[in-house]
Every structure is written in C-alpha cells, then in structure tokens.
C-alpha cells in the first residue's frame, strides 16, 4: 500500500511538472528565434564601445552576464551567449564632423538608432548552407525602440562568416575575451 501511494505521488508530481512546462517549438532558421530582453540595458554588461568614423555613430557592445562569466579566452562563446550591438548617433559640428570629448571619443546623441543581436544556442544554424552558416549563431535587427525590424540579414552572416570563422564568428567579443582572461 505504501509503495503504491508513493508511486501515485511521484506520478502526480511528474504530471504537475509536465503541465507547467512550455514545449519548445522546433528550431527553424531565422531571426524570429531571438527576442530582445526588456532588461538588457540594466542587466547586460557593456564590454566595448567603438567610434565608427565612416558612419558617424557610436557602437556599444553588450553581453548577457551569464555568458560573460562562462567565457574563456581562446574558446568559443558558450551556448546561451547573447551579444547586443546598440548604435547611437555621434553629435556633429557645423561641418558634419563628430564632436570629441576630452578623451578623444565621439560624444553620443541621446537614444538608440539601431540594435543588432547575435545569439548562440545548441542546434541553431542548422538549415543554413555553408555560404551562410555561422556555427550556432542567429542574428536579428531591432529599431532604437526595440521593435523587430524585418530586414535581410545576409550582410550579418556574410561579414561574420568571412572575417571571423576561426574566432567563433564574433568580432569584439572574441577580442575582449582574449584581453580580459
């Protein structure tokens, strides 16, 4: 009797666990896999800022804290890595040249103008051909307010594939990991 009661309790527990679990949809390639976390500005770690003279913007690079803690120099980024590239306009002088602060860096205008996201998960990237696949990475684009932009992302795949395959298809994050560890 005691064994059957225990078995019943275990079965009920498993049913309860299963009822609360959300089944994950099968993976299909595309930016729809990536959500921009609402709390990224307060929770993520800014690890790099790059002045882009040719575009007159400032690119701010962020990574989720879990990936940051698990990253090791010379190793691929861990699954679950979410890299956010948030752009601001540089403040310009009357001739259209970026104004510089006392450190020689561009002075930002307030607000984001574009947000790009690169996320790595197990099995992601399957379904892309060799001319586009970036390991297990996907890309997505958002406007400055965080709304998804449905634009072609071929340039993201092409740039990362052509330039950094040996460095886990990342630019600033690979370099940052190598410098800090």
Automatic annotation (TrEMBL):
Bilayer-spanning residue ranges: none
The keyword Cell wall biogenesis/degradation belongs to this UniProt entry's keyword annotation: no
Record keywords, A-Z: Signal
Annotated Cytochrome P460 domain residues: 37-172
Signal peptide (from-to): 1-21
Protein's UniProt name: Cytochrome P460 family protein
Source species of the chain: Falsiroseomonas algicola
Lineage: Bacteria, Pseudomonadati, Pseudomonadota, Alphaproteobacteria, Acetobacterales
